[in-house]
Design brief:
The protein contains 3 helices and 2 strands. It has one domain (3-97): Non-ribosomal Peptide Synthetase Peptidyl Carrier Protein, Chain A. By secondary structure, the chain is mostly helical. The termini are far apart. A two-stranded antiparallel sheet has the order 1-2. It has helices at residues 3-12, 14-48, 68-97; strands spanning 59-61, 64-66. α2 (14-48) crosses α3 (68-97).
Length: 98
């Protein structure tokens, strides 16, 4: 069996096609979740944190700049996004069960 025919067989398998659809849907869904987090939730979080912008925090060592604020902001974004996805999955499961 040639490599090309093996590749065609691999691509034609259902799991690969399901994965491709999942990646495409996931990319589109990411834009919705990003907008929800960045445009709706993070401004509210900013109010509770007193308008602190973590992304501007940095520390310079010699010629290197450690942008630890960006890391803190990424962690906060991850937690908020994970919670939103949890709520959406929970809601979808409830709708499915009814």
């Amino acid at each position: 069996m040639s490599m090309m025919s093996e590749f065609k067989e691999f691509i034609a398998k259902g799991n690969v096609m399901d994965l491709a659809v999942g990646v495409i849907i996931g990319a589109a869904f990411q834009k919705i979740v990003d907008s929800l987090v960045n445009d709706l939730l993070m401004p509210i979080v900013g109010i509770f944190l007193g308008g602190v912008d973590f992304s501007a925090l940095e520390y310079t060592v010699g010629s290197a700049t450690l942008k630890y604020g960006m890391f803190i902001q990424a962690v906060i974004n991850f937690v908020v996004i994970a919670f939103v996805v949890f709520l959406i999955v929970r809601w979808v499961n409830k709708v499915r069960n009814k």
